[in-house]
User: What shape does this take?
Amino acid sequence: MDRLGYKRYVAQGGDWGNAVSETMALIAPPGLLGIHTNMAATEPADISKALASGTVPPGLSADEKNAYQQLDFFFKKGVAYASEMSLRPQTLYGIDDSPIGLAGWMLDHDARSYELIARVFDGQKEGLTRDDILDNITLYWVTNTGISAARLYWEASQNAKGGFFDPRGVKIPVAVSVFPDEIYAAPKNWAEQAYSKLIYYNKVDKGGHFAAWEQPQTFAVELRAAFKSLR
Assistant: This one.
């Protein structure tokens, strides 16, 4: 960022962007004032153990119970696509030879996003349009990057030191926006435990895993509010 002339800046990410932003936060370069995430890594250790054993912990709040159920669904029925790309990305070479195969693989990312996309193609108005969805698939098709994008999962898995949503010990300021249809909606108390300098937390009414794509206006408002104290 120094080479670009920026002495003070922030970072934002969801999905892999969250992993990148949190890694930047761990490095903590002098100019990085804080980060914002819409897919926070806040899963407490006791929740991880409970998910592995299949025993729901007693005394969960409504938000914690919702997050637990979302995580339970994800690890049981939603993580297979990531496992395939982490373990055997080249086995997917067929999607480089079939636009239908590529579309099928990309559209079935997570259950709530799939439901949203299905509603769009059924004629309902959502944050995305048919053209938005087809444009995204076309971008990967014409650049032939379906497989190379998948290899990111394999490369990251070679030195993985924790789960998808394990706290990483970020010490710089963090802002969290929670979209209800994200893979899991992080409860505020989990965020407070995971991020020692939580400067902003807000739950919005609509949006999912691809928040910036689905709900750009809401997303922009969240970023402005999240970083206001760091200006």
Notes: DSSP finds eleven helices and four strands in the chain.
